[in-house]
Specification:
Strand content: over 45%
Distance between the termini: 40 Å
Helix content: under 10%
Largest sheet: 7 strands, mixed
Structural class: mainly beta
Shape: globular
Number of strands: 11
Number of helices: 0
Order of helices and strands: EEEEEEEEEEE
């Protein structure tokens, strides 16, 4: 059984910052990839950033230079700077490993003045 618990969403003004956290617990393999996805109303869920257990990162073009993904063991963070209204979405944590792909419950991020 794998559980992902997210925190850190909220309302922020354009240009502001937020940090999301996701703690994974349960039977977690050493080699895995943790990631953040977002889903805006009426749109498909999209990859925002991912980080492997060896520290390799990958970002969507829309967030490069503004967002930073990091991890400490089985907790993944997403530091979001210079937020824009188009970043408004539900943000989901994901864990991929040999046993499958697991999702958190999602946390709302709203960027608005």
């Amino acid at each position: 059984q794998v559980q992902l618990v997210e925190s850190g969403g909220g309302l922020v003004q354009p240009g502001g910052s937020l940090t999301l956290s996701c703690a994974a617990s349960g039977s977690i393999f050493t080699f895995n990839t943790m990631a953040w996805y977002h889903q805006a109303p009426g749109k498909q869920r999209e990859l925002v950033a991912q980080i492997t257990s060896t520290g390799t990162t990958n970002y969507a073009d829309s967030v490069k230079g503004r967002f930073t993904i990091s991890r400490a063991l089985n907790t993944v963070y997403l530091q979001m700077n210079t937020l824009k209204p188009e970043d408004t979405a539900v943000y989901y944590c994901n864990l991929k490993m040999l046993s499958g792909s697991y999702w958190g419950q999602g946390t709302q991020v709203t960027v608005s003045s």
